[in-house]
Design brief:
alpha+beta; metal-binding; 39 helices; aldehyde oxidase activity; 2Fe-2S_ferredoxin-type; aldehyde oxidase; globular; 21% strand
Length: 1288
């Protein structure tokens, strides 16, 4: 691929993150001269899908070509960095390239164009808001797109938050964009387009031959000669299939240079578009035609345009061709259903020409209606529409997601009546191909467009468009409901059109706003950077691609690549392993097994490499070492492993409870007399809560480079980890060599979120065994699919609650029992259970409590640490309790929350004292800043007027405990060197994960040494510089390492005191000549740690050093017919005390909030009945995209609160914002409850997270869901006795 070529050219700014074109990290700009218009076209592409052969005649611009620190920064790079739009920085080059390409085409883009351009770029850290803020500075008209901090001057938004508000960045300081200074199209390529090469170009690879004919005649001859060879243009369908399914085509034909395939012609009755036109070009062509023709003639074109806006990403639309999209005939195709109802025809060419309709028979692949092997699709004819045509689509999220179901519908009435003359309906996503409801449509001809017709149509559609319960993709009831829900939406919009009430087309993207506020002490010296929004130290390097990540390190001499062989069985005995064919593959060097480990192979229950048996699909059995990554992966395909299945195989929490399968003893906390309390309450409610797991989806997958040295068994390990000391210790015990021979280096990590605490040690140890055995450096980089399969994630939770309360909403007794799915080994599951139980009470003072928790042992990959560490799952149970109580009492949930909240200095369930003053302030400020009570009334008014759309609003308080529950884990050390030129090198035990810890440490050092940050530098985190470090986790990284850096700086200043006293007016450079007077300019700083302990026998302790308080209010609108929702507004107030860096801290809050919002709304892990993870990439697993950010997003830091315990009274905010994403979840359930109440259905329902469109739609029960349940599903054949997927 093009990405692999960039790596060999040392152009490492273009990142590899998914390999499927789904994340945008590898985005670059491709420029070509249009042969027709002679204009230069610039378009963004994802290089992981672009074959290098396809770029003949094209100019490729990577992030390195846009600007650099060594030459000049481009305004795009400068603004994204100075707008604080980078955290870990792994996604930043892709963001820059998408924005840069947009500006090359539109120097002053609209906000809608900006959102569209960035829709295919994923970010797991920032929450997108600052990225959009930087892009918005280029927009022609600014209407407050989510990103620009604004002052709160209007009366509606006035509150007591802060006495001084500042902007996160100053727009006026940015360099202007000058389009005349951009790179020109290479003259040699211009000359090539003037005299295009007509001869056929052939590229021979090891296994594939790429043939690019220069004329249409040559293409036809080649197709006749190689009828089985696919035509490849964008590679957006064939590429992922070749990668994930192992499809191999010995010959590929590229028609990219055939101008006949790009011809566009307009006639009086339709439009013919060349099959080689990209989907982005098709979009422009259709938009132009819509602007030229009367509305009644463009119904089909408008419907196509609607879907083209949400189909895949901008990068994919730039690459994918119209012909390829049609010929692929994917069941989920967005365009084929519309083209089918629009009576499109396909113009085919071989020796002659012929036309075939794009009909249900063609889409089903019937030979009589299909292309012949030697035929080529030349163009597509789309007639003008004389009928009303509409399209519908529902996917897991708004943007860059394959649809669950889509539909094209078209109707023609007898003139002047509402009698159906012609009707066409097609669906995608409900079968192996696009499905036409031809029979139903025929039976409805001549019917009046009324309620009777609607009812009959729905019944007929459900009968004709059937799905078995085991259908691939699952969600059968949901999909069947959408079949009739879409028709009902069509019915309503057609009815409105008949009555000329409204036009049934979408409204433009709305403007969006951001507001941020914080407090800066007006007496603070201007040169003191603490408390100011200092840009991330690596921000500019992130934006230019010069920031080096683990896999960017150049290949070292004699380096080998490693790939892992994993189990394909969930629980089985290994009978035999045949490596013979694998070892015969050229380039394969060796296979690393458990027998090659000289030391310990993990622990008894958690092996590094499997021995005799496997416990889950994805468990590592051994590793293949080869000269290249490709060779190693080919060898894996040739390995034969024979298994013998073992029993019982357990996947779900329910099954684990049934088999009494647990990883550790029950954890329990209790206070008061819960049984007695239950006897004295007015009401008792019991319920269940299900919370799904979550994949870390750090943009940089797990990777490690192990370099053995030539003497003393020394190793240098470059690894992407949150805990290099753990990697060091694990490698030491695995190789049976002393820890002091192993040095782990961490420059920066491309996101961690807890997933790079324990797992990197496993990969580091296996790679180290390979390095020791072969004597060569070993590089191990996991593909996204393997990373998601092997590493585990957030623990799924099943919670049961019983709550006793008075009729006024006061809760008197609460009993919660939680079970988490720990997977096949203990890992962190016991700790997660403990933290979950400790944090369950959240912000509420309830006199009688009992909390119990168990970690279940199942045959799935072990789940591990994840941002929030149990709090986001467990507290959802507590808040669901509150909502259930409110429903029973007929009270708003916020009233019940207020009534039960901590109010005065008190003790928690585990007897730790705390003052809830800041909690109450956050709550009140959030209610005030969000205008909550007024908006609650507005929501109720909206819901009265709308039956099929409902709004919901929720406000959630939070008491988040920070830190580890053990003093020893709060230790930290730092090493500070002052050099004789006055420059200072700071090293500490924290790791840069994107959370800005290095930036904050230099802010601390700058304040303590009273020198500018420009004098200070941090190189890397190294176990040779600062030993015995603690994992950067639990939100305390900046806290404890800041204390250590402060200590080191104070030691140095103490040493310099005599020099400064002698020359008080001297400069820093003069003072550091103290070295000549034999004063050491190097100091180790140390922080002994916050005291923390927990006695589980007694059920009491002081496990946490302090709490972070916050509150969030969110408002959403749901579509009751499809389950879709949009986020209207979110307000967050967080108690940060005195923020070290408000830009970084607000970024952490926003990023955590959006990640939490993903947990609660879109991120869903699905496993096969055999325990194989289905959702192993961005195509199937949906983290939030840029379109998921609330339309209005306000974040405020609560001022004037102090905590003397921490560095400068700051607080760690890395994790706490995660749970505030639940405000969106509870706003959705509030809207669902409103819908159910209006339909006279019980308001209480089983709470299930994530609140996917499927869950929302089915919870908003109506006559259409009833139809689905009444109409029986097709019988399951004996060969499919199990459902398509299971959920943990």
């Amino acid at each position: 691929s093009t990405k692999e070529t960039f790596l060999t050219m040392r152009l490492t700014g273009t990142k590899y993150a998914c390999g499927r074109g789904g994340c945008g990290a590898c985005t670059v700009m491709v420029s070509k001269r249009d042969p027709t218009s002679q204009e230069i076209r610039h378009f963004s592409v994802t290089t992981c899908l672009v074959p290098i052969c396809s770029l003949y005649g094209a100019a490729v611009t990577t992030v390195e070509g846009v600007g650099s620190m060594k030459t000049r920064l481009h305004p795009v790079q400068e603004r994204i960095a100075k707008s604080h739009g980078t955290q870990c920085g792994f996604c930043t080059p892709g963001m820059v390239m998408s924005m840069y390409t947009l500006l090359r085409n539109h120097p002053q883009p609209s906000e809608e164009q900006l959102l569209e351009a960035l829709g295919g770029n994923l970010c797991r850290c920032t929450g997108y808001r600052p990225i959009l803020a930087s892009g918005k500075t280029f927009c022609l008209v600014s209407r407050g797109l989510r990103g620009h901090p604004q002052s709160k001057n209007d009366g509606d938004r006035r509150s007591s938050l802060g006495t001084q508000e500042s902007q996160l960045f100053v727009k006026e300081e940015f360099q202007p964009l000058d389009p005349t200074q951009e790179l020109i199209f290479p003259p040699e390529l211009l000359r090539m387009t003037e005299n295009p090469e007509k001869r056929t170009l052939t590229f021979h690879g090891e296994r594939v031959t790429w043939i690019s004919p220069g004329t249409f005649k040559d293409l036809l001859e080649l197709k006749a000669k190689h009828p089985e060879a696919p035509l490849i243009l964008g590679n957006t369908s064939l590429g992922p299939a070749m990668r994930s399914k192992g499809c191999l085509h010995p010959i590929l034909l590229s028609p990219a240079r055939i101008s006949e395939l790009n011809v566009v012609s307009k006639t009086n009755d339709g439009l013919t578009i060349g099959a080689g036109c990209s989907l982005a070009q098709v979009k422009d062509i259709l938009a132009e035609r819509v602007s030229e023709l009367p509305e009644e003639k463009t119904q089909t074109y408008r419907a196509l345009l609607k879907h083209l806006k949400s189909l895949a990403s901008q990068q994919i639309r730039n690459m994918a061709s119209l012909g390829g999209h049609i010929i692929s005939r994917h069941s989920y195709s967005d365009l084929n259903p519309i083209l089918a109802v629009g009576n499109a025809t396909l113009n085919l060419t071989s020796e002659g020409t012929r036309r075939i309709p794009l009909s249900e028979h063609f889409l089903a692949g019937l030979a009589s209606a299909d292309l012949k092997p030697e035929e080529i699709l030349e163009s597509v004819y789309i007639p003008h529409s004389q009928k009303l045509a509409l399209t519908f689509r529902q996917a897991q999220c708004q943007q860059n997601a394959l649809p669950d179901v889509n539909a094209g519908m078209r109707v023609l009435f007898k003139e002047g009546t509402d009698i159906i003359e012609d009707l066409s309906i097609t669906y995608g996503g409900v079968g192996a191909a696009t499905v036409s409801a031809h029979k139903s449509c025929q039976q409805l001809l001549g019917r009046q467009w009324d309620e009777l017709m609607l009812d009959e149509a729905c019944r007929r559609l459900l009968d004709e468009v059937s799905l078995p319960g085991w259908a691939p993709g699952g969600r059968v009831e949901f999909k069947r409901t959408l079949v009739v829900s879409f028709f009902f939406k069509f019915y309503l919009q057609v009815l409105q059109e008949l009555k000329k009430l409204i036009k049934p087309f979408p409204v433009p993207v709305s403007a969006l706003a951001f507001m941020g506020s914080w407090h800066v002490d007006s007496h603070q010296p201007l040169q003191d950077p603490v408390g100011r929004p200092v840009m991330h130290l690596s921000g500019l390097k992130h934006a230019t691609g010069e920031a080096e990540f683990c896999d960017d390190i150049p290949m070292v001499d004699k380096e080998l690549c490693m790939a892992l062989v994993t189990s394909t069985r969930a629980y089985a005995k290994i009978i035999s392993i045949d490596l013979s064919e694998a070892l015969e593959i050229p380039g394969v060097v060796d296979v690393i097994t458990a027998k090659d480990i000289p030391g310990t192979n993990g622990t008894e229950d958690d092996k590094l490499l499997a021995v005799d048996e496997v416990l889950c699909v994805g468990q590592i059995i051994f590793a293949v070492v080869a000269e290249t990554d490709v060779q190693a992966k080919r060898a894996i395909e040739k390995i034969k492993i024979t298994y013998e299945e073992l029993e019982p195989i357990i996947f779900t929490i329910k099954d684990a409870i049934k088999h009494n399968s647990f990883l550790c003893p029950e954890k329990k906390l209790e206070q008061g007399n819960i049984e007695e309390a239950f006897e004295k309450v007015d009401q008792i409610v019991e319920g269940e809560v299900h919370v799904g797991g979550q994949e870390h989806f750090y943009m940089e997958t797990q990777r490690v480079l192990v370099i053995p040295k030539t003497e003393d068994k020394e190793l240098d390990i470059y690894v992407s980890t949150q805990d290099p000391a753990h990697v060091q210790k694990t490698v030491s015990s695995t190789l049976n060599i002393p820890i002091n021979r192993i040095t782990c280096h961490v420059k920066r990590v491309g996101g961690g979120f807890g997933g790079k605490i324990g797992r990197p040690a496993v990969f580091g140890a296996i790679a180290a065994v390979g390095a020791l055995k072969t004597g060569h450096p070993i590089r191990l980089v996991l593909d996204r699919e393997d990373d998601m399969l092997i590493t585990g994630g957030r623990h799924p939770l099943f919670g049961k609650y019983k709550v006793g309360f008075m009729n006024n909403g006061r809760i008197k007794a609460l009993d919660i029992e939680c079970f988490i799915n720990g997977g096949c080994t203990l890992d962190d599951s016991e700790l997660v259970t403990e933290f979950l139980i400790l944090k369950l009470e959240n912000a509420y003072k309830i006199r009688n409590l009992r909390f119990r928790g168990r970690a279940c042992l199942t045959n799935l990959p072990s789940n591990t640490a994840f941002r929030g560490f149990g709090f986001p799952q467990g507290t959802l149970v507590t808040e669901s309790c509150i909502t259930a109580v409110a429903a029973k009492c007929g009270l708003p949930p916020e009233k019940v929350r207020e009534k039960n909240m901590y109010r005065t200095v008190d003790k928690t369930i585990y007897k730790q004292a705390f003052n809830p003053e800041s909690l109450i302030r956050c709550w009140n400020e959030c209610l005030d800043a969000s205008s909550f009570h007024n908006r609650r009334k507005q929501v109720e008014e909206f819901n009265k007027k709308n039956y099929w759309k409902k709004r919901g609003i929720a406000v959630i308080p939070m008491k988040f405990s920070v830190g580890f529950a053990a003093t020893s884990y709060h230790q930290a050390a730092a090493l500070v060197h002052i050099y004789t030129d006055g420059s200072v090198l700071v090293t500490h035990g924290g790791n840069e994960l994107g959370q800005g810890i290095h930036t904050k440490m230099l802010q601390v050092a700058s304040r303590e040494l009273k020198i500018p940050m420009s004098h200070l530098h941090i190189c890397e985190t190294s176990t040779a510089m600062v030993p015995n470090t603690i994992a950067t986790a639990a939100s305390v990284g900046a806290d404890i390492n800041g204390k250590a850096v402060q200590n080191a700086c104070q030691i140095l200043l103490k040493r310099l005191e005599p020099i400064i006293k002698k020359n008080p007016e001297g400069t820093w450079e003069e003072w550091v000549t103290a070295f000549e007077q034999r004063i050491s300019l190097s100091a180790t700083g140390y922080f002994r740690g916050y005291k923390a302990f927990m006695d589980w026998e007694k059920g009491e302790g002081d496990p946490f050093p302090y709490y972070v308080y916050g509150a969030a209010c969110s408002e959403v609108e749901i579509d009751c017919l499809t389950g879709a929702h949009k986020k209207i507004r979110t307000d967050i107030v967080m108690d940060a005390c005195c923020s070290l860096n408000p830009a970084i801290d607000i970024g952490q809050i926003e990023g955590a909030f959006i990640q939490g919002m993903g947990l609660y709304t879109t991120e869903e892990l699905k496993y096969s009945p055999e325990g194989v993870l289905y959702s192993r990439g961005p195509d199937e697993y949906k983290i939030p995209t840029i379109s998921d950010v609330p339309e209005e997003f306000n974040v405020s830091l609560l001022p004037s609160s102090q905590t003397p315990l921490t560095i400068y009274s700051s607080k760690g905010l890395g994790e706490s914002g995660m749970f505030l994403g639940s405000s969106v979840f509870f706003a959705i359930t509030d809207a669902v409850a409103a819908a159910r109440k209006e339909r006279d259905i019980a308001e209480d329902f089983t709470v299930k997270s994530p609140a996917t469109p499927e869950w929302v739609r089915m919870a908003c029960a109506d006559r259409f869901t009833e139809m689905v349940y009444i109409c029986p599903l097709p019988l399951e054949p004996p060969s499919h006795p199990t459902p398509w997927a299971i959920f943990k």
